[in-house]
Amino acid sequence: MNFELLENAIKKRSLVQCEYAGFKFKIKPLKLAMFDGFWYLLFLDTNKNDTFKKFHLKSITNIRILEEKFKLDAKIEERIKNINSAWATLDKPNTARLLLSPQIKKYFERKPYAKQSITGLDADGSVVIDIEFTNLMEIKPLIYYFIPFIKVLEPKELADTIKDEIEKYLEEIK
Prior knowledge:
The chain has helices spanning 2-12, 74-81, 102-110, 136-146, 156-172; strands spanning 14-20, 23-35, 38-45, 51-56, 60-69, 94-100, 116-121, 127-133, 150-154. Strand 2 (23-35) and strand 3 form a beta hairpin. By secondary structure, the chain is α+β, with helices and mostly antiparallel strands. It starts with a helix and ends with a helix.
């Protein structure tokens, strides 16, 4: 029921009042999205100067659709379309350049990630892809999932973060 209610508010660009974790919110609902098996509502919090936020859908209570309507900037609308993680933000995206071994390239061809593009194919069957991200936690789980068949080529800060975290982990389990 909440899903349909919010879906209609999104389509009609209606403001919504609701509660979450004991707090009251007046929001501009943008999108219902499933991340890692959980439904989320993506929205702008009018009480915080239209700050972009995400709430776990089942945890939202006392939903009330308001008569008041809102307009959405085309730039925000475009960014919302490409969000593929609960960690995503509306910030200007960064690009990760990743080298995929032949063993895993098929997974990225079958189901491309949002804002993924193949930029190179090597003779050994490996492939270079670019993926946009706005938060390190959008891209890090993907990289960890495919280790050792994936390598970060750029940005250097991401490669260093992954290397440091793996080294720390290996040191802790010795």
